[in-house]
TrEMBL record:
It is a multi-pass membrane protein. One of its GO terms (molecular function) is long-chain-alcohol O-fatty-acyltransferase activity. Transmembrane segments: none annotated. It comes from Vicugna pacos. Pfam families: DAGAT. Its EC number is 2.3.1.-. This is Acyltransferase. InterPro entries: DAGAT. It is found in: Endoplasmic reticulum membrane. CDD domains: LPLAT_MGAT-like. One of its GO terms (biological process) is lipid metabolic process.
Length: 328
C-alpha cells in the first residue's frame, strides 16, 4: 500500500500554491484590473488590456513559456510534499512530435502539472530535446492575467487550432491532453482506476492527421490524494454540478483531504506518492483525412498499450495484483 507521511507546514503551503494562484488570477485580478480603470491607476490597466488584445492569438500559436516560472522553487516544494516523480520507459526522439494521453484526471491533476508544466522533476533532463505542453480549457486563455500565468508554465489551449499549431511547427513537441476531461474528475476516488476513454477518439484523429506518435501515460496515486463526496444522478447537488459545468466548463467537486494538524480534515491533499509513468510511443502514419475505421484501429491500439502500461507497473506503485483498469 502507499505510505503516508507528515509534511512540514511550509511544504503544505506550497502545495496549495497551484490551486490558490489559479483562483486568485481567475476571481480577483480580472475584476481588480477593471476597477483600476476608474481610478488614478487607469493607465496601468489600459496598457495591460491593450497588450491583452494585441496578444490575443498567442495561446493558439505556441504560447509564451518562461523557464524562470517553470523553475520556481515552489514547484520543488510541491514535488516533495507527496512526493511526485516521473518514470521514463522509452526515449522520445526529438525528430518527432507527440500527442500524449494524460490519465487519470484526478481532482487537481497534480502529477501532470508538476511533471509537464514545471522542471521540478527534471523533465528536460529526462527527455532531452523534447518540449512539453499540457492542454487545458480554451476559455482559461481568455481570462486576463490567468492566461499569461498558464502560458508561462507551458500550458496550452485544448482547442484544435492550438494543438494543430504545435504539431505542425517544428519537431520535438510533446502535447499532453487529459483525455478523460473534466468529467473524469467526478470519478476520482481512492482505490479507483476508471477512465473515460472509449468514446474519446478525437485525439487519435488529430495525431493521424499530423503523423504524431501517441504516448500513453498513467499517473499512479493521482486519485488517492483526495476523498470526494459523490452524489446520485437524481440529486439536486448532482444537477447543480452539471449546471456549474455548463457555465464554467468544469465540475464543482466536493472533495476533502487532510488539515494542517495530523489527523485533521481539510483541503490539503494527502501526502501520498504520485508517479507518472510515460509509456512507449505508438508510431502513427500521417493521413490527412483518416477514415473512422482507421481512427478506431489506432484508438484500440492505444487503449491496449495503456492497459499494458498500467498492468506492468500497478503493483510497484500501490495497486493490488487484481486491480483492473476500466474504460468507460
Amino acid at each position: 500500500m502507499l505510505s503516508f507521511k507528515q509534511p512540514n507546514h511550509f511544504q503544505s503551503l506550497m502545495v496549495l500554491q497551484w490551486p490558490l494562484s489559479f483562483l486568485i488570477l481567475f476571481w480577483i485580478f480580472p475584476p481588480l484590473s477593471i476597477y483600476l480603470l476608474f481610478t488614478s491607476w487607469w493607465p496601468l490597466s489600459a496598457l495591460y488590456f491593450a497588450w491583452f488584445f494585441l496578444d490575443w492569438k498567442t495561446p493558439d500559436q505556441g504560447g509564451r513559456r518562461s523557464a524562470w516560472v517553470r523553475n520556481w522553487c515552489a514547484w520543488t516544494h510541491m514535488r516533495d510534499y507527496f512526493p511526485i516523480s516521473i518514470l521514463k520507459t522509452k526515449d522520445l526522439s526529438p525528430e518527432h512530435n507527440y500527442l500524449m494521453g494524460v490519465h487519470p484526471h484526478g481532482i487537481m491533476t497534480f502529477g501532470g502539472v508538476c511533471n509537464f508544466c514545471t522542471e521540478a522533476t527534471g523533465f528536460s533532463k529526462i527527455f532531452p530535446g523534447i518540449t512539453s505542453y499540457l492542454a487545458t480549457l480554451s476559455w482559461f486563455f481568455k481570462v486576463p492575467f490567468l492566461r499569461d500565468y498558464l502560458m508561462a508554465k507551458g500550458l496550452c489551449s485544448v482547442s484544435r487550432s492550438a494543438i494543430d499549431y504545435l504539431l505542425s511547427h517544428g519537431t520535438g513537441n510533446l502535447v499532453g491532453i487529459v483525455v478523460g476531461g473534466v468529467g473524469e474528475a467526478l470519478l476520482s476516488m481512492p482505490n479507483t482506476t476508471t477512465l473515460i476513454l472509449r468514446k474519446h477518439k478525437g485525439f487519435v484523429r488529430t495525431a493521424l492527421q499530423h503523423g504524431a506518435h501517441l504516448v500513453p501515460t498513467f499517473t499512479f496515486g493521482e486519485t488517492e490524494v483526495y476523498d470526494q463526496v459523490l452524489y446520485h444522478k437524481d440529486s439536486c447537488m448532482y444537477k447543480f454540478q452539471r449546471h456549474f459545468r455548463q457555465i464554467f466548463g468544469f465540475y464543482f467537486c466536493v472533495f476533502y483531504g487532510r488539515g494542517f494538524r495530523q489527523g485533521s480534515t481539510g483541503l490539503l491533499p494527502y501526502s501520498l506518492p504520485i508517479v507518472t509513468v510515460v509509456g512507449e510511443p505508438l508510431p502513427l502514419p500521417k493521413i490527412e483525412k483518416p477514415s473512422q475505421e482507421v481512427v478506431d484501429k489506432y484508438h484500440a491500439l492505444y487503449m491496449d498499450a495503456l492497459h499494458k502500461l498500467f498492468d506492468q507497473h500497478k503493483t510497484q506503485y500501490g495497486c493490488s495484483e487484481t486491480q483492473k483498469l476500466l474504460f468507460l
